[in-house]
Write a structure and sequence with these properties.
Elements (H helix, E strand, L loop, with lengths): L6 H42 L9 H4 L3 H31 L17 H9 L3 H4 L2 H16 L2 H22 L1 H27 L1 H5 L4 H49 L7
Helix pairs in contact: 1-3, 3-8, 3-10, 4-6, 6-7, 6-10, 7-10, 8-10
């Protein structure tokens, strides 16, 4: 049997490939050539003026391979979060629909559930898979079969809790990326310090340029990685907050529009 590859997996894979290609192209075409030119200009100015103090340059700070890897992971994580945010927006669009048409005086009896389920069943397939549609359908089916309002409330709670756990588990890849970015920065720190120690004999002889460049690799990689990690964690917490709000709003919607009108 031929099984279709999940769209989300394809999106994750293609977004990673695109991030690698774009970031590497920018590094090859802009960042590394510009950083090399700046470093050469600094060496000339330092030879001409011993008191010359170079200014920090963005291109020099981000020129190394560790920073490139951190930017690739940053854009990949952002693309994953944009996909999750797009799904959240689609869920909210369905939530804005008038799926349960009931006034304050309306009473919904068990034999009325089929009628109230028809507008939900008439939705598009993607909308029927939304959280609010699944919660309402589960509640209506439960009320028709058990005629117990408490069971209906419990079924809505179960659907929302399961969705909340699913959304939280799907953030595991983003959490891994947020952990991997500072780890890559630390690898750059180890590499830079190792290079500096290997060039210590030059510093003893009075030539400290190579040592300072290696130490720059160490500190710049950690600096960039920590900044990116802060950004990723902020965006991830905002996304998680939006997802939690969605589940709470679905519960409130079901309670206000459906459960409060049920009568046995």
């Amino acid at each position: 049997m031929n099984k279709k590859i999940p769209f989300e997996f394809l999106y994750q894979f293609l977004s990673l490939i695109i991030a690698i290609i774009l970031v590497h192209a920018i590094y090859l075409g802009i960042i590394r050539p510009t950083a090399s030119a700046i470093l050469q200009d600094r060496e000339i100015q330092m030879l001409e003026d011993p008191e010359f103090v170079p200014e920090r340059s963005f291109y020099v700070v981000v020129k190394d391979f560790e920073q490139e890897a951190c930017f690739i992971l940053m854009f990949w994580a952002i693309s994953l979060m944009l996909y999750k945010a797009w799904q959240n927006m689609n869920e909210r669009r369905v939530l804005q629909l008038n799926l349960i048409s009931a006034s304050e005086e309306t009473s919904i009896l068990p034999q009325d559930t089929r009628e109230y389920a028809r507008p939900i069943q008439a939705l598009a397939e993607t909308s029927q898979n939304s959280l609010i549609a699944r919660a309402l359908m589960t509640a209506l089916h439960r009320f028709r079969s058990t005629e117990n309002i408490q069971d209906v409330s419990n079924s809505i709670q179960s659907v929302c809790d399961a969705e909340s756990e699913r959304l939280d588990s799907e953030l595991s890849m983003i959490r891994y990326i947020a952990w991997a970015i500072p780890s890559i920065g630390f690898l750059g720190t180890v590499r830079g310090i190792g290079q500096a120690l290997g060039q210590a004999h030059q510093a003893v002889g009075g030539e400290i340029t190579a040592v300072t460049q290696s130490l720059g690799v160490a500190f710049n990689s950690t600096f960039v990685a920590l900044l990116i990690s802060i950004l990723i964690m902020f965006l991830m917490h905002q996304l998680q907050l939006a997802q939690e709000r969605l589940t709470h709003e679905v519960q409130s919607y079901c309670d206000d529009r459906l459960v409060s009108h049920l009568k046995t």
